[in-house]
Amino acid sequence: MGDWTLKNSYYLTLMTSAYIIGEIAHFLINTTGREVARDVHFGDKSCFFNETYNDPSENKSNNNCSEIKEQKECSGTEYCSWEYSGLGIEYQILAGPAFVAVFSVSGVLISVLSDKLKASVSRVLLVGIGTAVFSTACLLMGFADSYWQLVLLRMLIAAGESVCRPMCGAMIADLFSPKSRGVANGVFSWGVYVGFGMAFVLGINGTNADIAGYGWRAPYIIAAVPGLVIATLFFLTLNDPKPDSIQTLQRSTSPTADSRTYFQKLVKSFTNPALLLLLVAAMARHTAGLTWAYNTRLFFQNYHPHFDLGYWILLASVVGGSFGVFAGGFFSDRLVSKLGLHSRLWLLAACTIAAAPLAAGVLYFDPPGAMGFLIGYYLFAETWFAVLFTVIVEIVEPEVRATCIALFLFCMNQVGGNLP
Predict the structure, then answer these.
(1) Do residues 331 and 276 make contact, with C-beta atoms less than 8 angstroms apart?
(2) Other residues' Cβ atoms within 10 Å of the Cβ of residue 51
(3) Between the CA of residue 218 and those of 84, 127, 211, 225, what are the distances in Å?
(4) Tens of pLDDT along 101-131?
(5) How far is it, in rounded angstroms, from Cα 263 to Cα 258?
(6) H or E stretch at 49
(7) What is the pLDDT of residues 81-106, one digit of tens each?
(8) Under a CB-based contact definition with an 8 Å cutoff, are residues 36 and 29 in contact?
(9) Which position has the higher pLDDT, 348 or 245?
């Protein structure tokens, strides 16, 4: 059985489940943006086909409403209406900077606190609190009725989710040895792809189903409830798996000396040339990934408005992304045992090169052919996530793992999270 004991599997299952809910809460605004904008009233307006128009000679497929750019002309066309489009600077702020700014800063602060007070502050408790915060904020978004409320709640979702990757990444490193660490990080990273895919199904299909008359609000409420259950399980069933050696070291070192040693290790670890090179690459990769994630539905709404996107994105994300990130961890674990740590990066580089032409195919071809390219792209491109964080925890000092991950995410998100 090795690392894959029942205890370790339960820890990993609960951490991954929390991450899934966090990513659903993260990306729901990207799949419900137009509906939210029309209800709450924010962002740009455009000309759309009037859904209440009953003349069968005019319908979505043969009208020219989308070609009209002026409000006066749109309003004067019987079968068109001037509506919020879900685009514009207010949407981009809500989707990007409002989330990224808080996510980056709070992740660093919480991780420094965790690493500095590792003997007395439970990482399990921090993840449980974070899960409760983003789940509660997601629930409250279902009741928001103004733009500023949406921004504030997005910030709270970001603050809660910022705990997940640094804390869980550090705990995975304590629970799993190097021979299984890549796979464990791959399984944990399923949270991104399952959460992203489920956000499309919940956001699009849940909104269209108009559950209990709540429209776009129902998906936020539905997504939040499991998160609150998972947070309760963290509080009641898990203990921090910190090594005994860390606790002994914390007790035997004076506070002043401990702080000096901590920051020396942090600076040494984070200025490692390999880590800095990974950071530059991750910034570019993250910028591209979030540009697509934030605008996927809007892209298809504008260029392929009659394509039913929801389940296709779930299929591409869950099958392509989840298999890709798992395969990246699995094969990198096999390689590292034979060729050393650098072989993880060889695999990462090869898969990234293979993914580039598939990404171009997604934009060039019409759906559903584009979806085939997207699945292929995810299979290769998403190997990066598990391999990246496995390498980080293996090249930094154990005492500063959580902080290094958080600092890495901070820098990566300042570029990749704001440029899209």
Answers:
(1) no
(2) 8
(3) 20, 25, 6, 11
(4) 898 888 888 887 777 666 677 889 999 999 9
(5) 9
(6) strand 45-49
(7) 999 988 899 998 998 888 988 988 88
(8) yes
(9) 348
* CB neighbour burial string for 99-138, b if at least 16 within 10 angstroms, e if fewer: bbbbbbbbbbebbbebbbebeeebbbbbbbbbbbbbbbbb
Task: Round to whole Å and give the CA distance between 208 and 44.
Answer: 22
Q: Across the strands, what pairs with 46? A: 83
DSSP 112: H
**355-381 b/e (C-beta count within 10 Å ≥ 16 → b):** beebbeebeeeebeebbbbbbbbbbbb
Judge contact between 111 and 95, C-beta under 8 A. Answer: no
Closest by CA position to 344, among listed 335, 357, 356: 335
Higher pLDDT, 128 or 64: 128
Helices in 162-305 by DSSP H: which ranges? Answer: 164-175, 178-200, 207-209, 217-237, 244-252, 255-270, 273-303
Residue with tokens 């799993």: 176
- Closest to 289 in 3D by CA, of 390, 183, 405, 384: 384
Distance separating alpha carbons of residues 173 and 242, to the nearest angstrom: 10
**φ, ψ for residue 46, nearest 5 deg:** -145, 175
Peptide bond into 368 cis (omega under 30): yes
What mean pLDDT comes out for the span 1-9? 84
CB within 8 Å of 208: residues ≥ 6 apart: none
201 close to 125: Cβ distance less than 8 angstroms: no
For residue range 141-184, list pLDDT tens digits in order: 999 999 999 999 999 999 999 999 888 988 998 899 888 888 89
Instruction: Note every long-range contact of 281-287, with CB atoms under 8 Å and residues 24 or more positions apart, other chains counting.
Output: 282/384, 282/388, 282/408, 282/412, 282/416, 283/411, 283/412, 283/415, 283/416, 284/416, 285/352, 285/384, 285/416, 286/412, 286/413, 286/415, 286/416, 286/417, 287/415, 287/416, 287/419, 287/420
Nearest to 91 by CA among 287, 298, 292: 298
3-state secondary structure labels for all residues of 135-167:
HHHHHHHCCCCCHHHHHHHHHHHHHHHCCHHHH
Mean pLDDT for 18-36 is 94
Q: Say if residue 366's pLDDT is above 60.
A: yes
- DSSP state at residue 47: E
Does the pTM surpass 0.85? The reply is no
Best CA proximity match to 142, nearest among 209, 53, 203, 100: 203
